[in-house]
Design brief:
Layout (H helix, E strand, L loop, with lengths): L10 E3 L2 E4 L6 H7 L4 H5 L8 H17 L4 E7 L6 E12 L4 E8 L8 H17 L3 E7 L3 H9 L3 E11 L5 E10 L7
């Protein structure tokens, strides 16, 4: 059975915190989205503006949560006053009737390659299985995004196949996407 939380959860493990996006995150979200890799490997547009970041925090994230269509979380790394915004994570493209969700994420450039993303992926995946009640969590990534593919494999996801011409980029090109998944019965936890 699926249980949708009554409020956006705060999830912690070591120096990793996943929490509701906050007003104070807006400048860091904007700055992080300026990285040229972000629009290549995500659906964030290349012309991402401060207004986009404001809309994400003030409207999109809370409305998606209230409508049970997405659970969007800010990734914070560090303790206390040293904690820094490190990226964004979400469950989206959910089919609550089928108990399936899709995990998505992006990391700020200075936070990549340190295990932060895989730790946050494990933390959110664990929450998806143990608290929400998903039976399957998918991840769909650009086949050329080797770092993201490695992150998913390190996090316990398995490659299920390549979906040819699955996604359309801003420039109109159609690209192949790799489908990864984790299932409740195979999940090893944190």
């Amino acid at each position: 059975m699926i249980w949708w939380p009554t409020e956006v959860p705060t999830l912690k493990h070591g120096l990793i915190t996943l929490r509701a996006p906050q007003e104070s995150d807006i400048p860091a979200i904007f700055e992080g989205a300026q990285d040229p890799l972000i629009p290549i490997f995500t659906r964030i547009p290349s012309n991402y503006s401060m207004a986009n970041a404001e809309f994400y925090v003030r409207e999109r994230s809370p409305n998606a949560f209230a409508n049970q269509t997405e659970l969007q979380l800010a990734l914070e790394y560090g303790n206390g006053n040293d904690a820094k915004f490190a990226g964004a994570f979400s469950f989206h493209s959910m089919d609550l009737r089928e108990h399936v969700g899709e995990i998505g994420y992006w990391l700020c450039a200075p936070m990549r390659g340190k295990g932060i993303g895989s730790s946050a992926t494990k933390l959110l995946t664990n929450y998806g299985f143990e608290s929400i009640g998903f039976e399957r969590i998918e991840a769909v990534v650009n086949v050329e995004n080797i770092a993201s593919r490695k992150l998913l494999e390190k996090s316990g996801y398995s490659l299920e196949g390549i979906m040819r011409k699955k996604s359309r980029k801003e420039d109109g090109t159609q690209i192949d996407m790799a489908l990864y998944a984790a299932t409740r019965e195979d999940w090893q936890g944190l």
